[in-house]
Amino acid sequence: MRIDIWSDIACPWCYIGLTRFGRALERFEHSEDVEVELHSFQLDPTLPESFEGTEADYLAASKGLDVADVHAMTRQVSAAAATEGLTLDFDSLVVTNSRRAHRLLQYAKGVSGQATWDLELALLTAHFTDGLSISDPDTVAALADRVGIEPDAARAALDSPELDAAVTADVDAAAQLGIRGVPFFVLNGKYGVSGAQPPELFDSALQQVWDEEHPA
After folding, report:
1. Shortest CA distance to 94 belongs to which of 132, 64, 148?
2. How far apart are CA 35 and CA 100, in angstroms?
3. CA separation, residue 58 to residues 41, 52, 53, 61, 146 (Å)
4. Who's near 33: CB < 8 A, 6+ residues apart?
5. pLDDT by 10s per residue, the chain, length 216
6. For residue 179, what are the contacts with CB-CB under 8 A and spacing of at least 6?
7. Count of CB atoms within 10 A of residue 6's CB?
């Protein structure tokens, strides 16, 4: 069984959704027969490399919201994350464009699917929990080293035109599928699951698709 997942490192619901899906996959009795591929997506490709302000400032400006409303929204997201044991620190978050990190994830695909998965979760943790910049070469090189990717290769990947083209290909594929928000899960090329759904939904979706492909 194949699972394709579109996500953005600058998306807190992706952090929650990937965590929930990952735990469902660990519980799934046929997990060793499931191939997962992560795909790039950018919620805001126009975000500058460096934004002078907080995440609340950015969201208020980009969405036309009052800062108080943004704080209420981030508290809601943080509460959802806490149910999965995740801590989101929006006050310390470094607002930056995720494009460079996506290039590194494209490089990681050439290493292994597990390295890509581990790196994406490491980047999400760095961004939303640890207050680190996901576009800083030293930061991402250290994260890459933890998951078995050579640090110098990681630094080179950040500005690679070839890897940038791979990011664009993923974004274009999402557009062709009508994907406008992430996380988005495609099971066996036939079934779409949108958003950070409850863990039980991922459990049932995996089992349903497996049973359809492997009737008793």
Report:
1. 132
2. 25
3. 19, 9, 7, 5, 30
4. 1
5. 999 999 999 999 999 999 999 999 999 999 999 999 999 999 999 998 888 889 999 999 988 989 999 999 999 999 999 999 999 999 999 999 999 999 999 999 999 999 999 999 999 999 999 999 999 999 999 999 999 999 999 999 999 999 999 999 999 999 999 999 999 999 999 999 999 999 999 999 999 999 998 887
6. 6, 41
7. 23
Q: Are 10 and 120 in contact (CB under 8 A)?
A: no
Alpha carbon distance 119, 116 (integer Å): 5
DSSP states of 98-132:
SHHHHHHHHHHHTT-HHHHHHHHHHHHHHHHTS--
